[in-house]
Amino acid sequence: YLDRLPLDQVRDFEAYLIRYLQAHHSTLLDRLDRGDWSRRVRRALPQAIEDCMRAYTHSAQSADASEQEID
Length: 71
Description:
This protein is mainly α. Helix content is 62%, strand content 0%. It is built from 3 helices and no strands. Helix 1 (10-24) packs across helix 3 (39-59). The protein is elongated and about 35 Å long. The two termini are 19 Å apart.
């Protein structure tokens, strides 16, 4: 996923991803915190990251991602 980003945006995306997952996929984060790597979690995580990447790239055009609101 990160290979699509310029190197100088990786840290901003990391912070955005965490906020995005907290806002939109808190159950997934809870499962990961418990060490749940079930098939369901392994399928949901890439989709959540893809969704976040789309939101990040869309919103990064106008502002610094570390300060953006989560869509």
